[in-house]
Description:
With 167 residues, the chain is mainly alpha-helical. The protein has helices spanning 4-9, 12-26, 30-40, 66-78, 102-166, and strands at residues 55-56, 82-84, 95-98. It has one domain: Arc Repressor Mutant, subunit A (Orthogonal Bundle), CATH 1.10.10. The chain is 66% helix and 5% strand.
Amino acid sequence: MLRLQTFEALGRSKKMLGTHLDSMMSKLTESERGSAANILRYLVTPAGQRSHRRLVRSRPGSDLPEVEVQSTLDRFERARHANPANGASTARPAQYEIFHDVLADGILDWRAHYLQEQKRLEAEAQVARQRAKAKRLRLIAAGLSVMLVIMIVLAVIALRAKSQRVW
């Protein structure tokens, strides 16, 4: 039994389900979160509704391995975020849909934040790669400068030795 005051304090169903979704996603590994973000795009329309194109476990041309897709969908099913839309058989594999339309906004929000974080991390990694490349170039330039100075010193020594032998 949940009192109306408690229900409203918890943010009503939409916020409660979103919090539950965030909690579940935080328990996934980075690889699993990436798989979930990829899979979830098939379960929710951009307008924030359950997709009527139910997700088949393995989509043709999918870049995710079957085992990873099934593992992620099983987690969603256990958390009551997604459920099989039909019975699985060898002739007709299980299809999944999100459990309730209220989850759609939470899924879209989580996926948008996840993708934004991935872009930020990639940008940071790109900056780090550029810095490392610049550092390597500075070291190469410093090494070449030292070699140039050594060659000039050796050339001056060779010229002096040659000029001293001529006299």
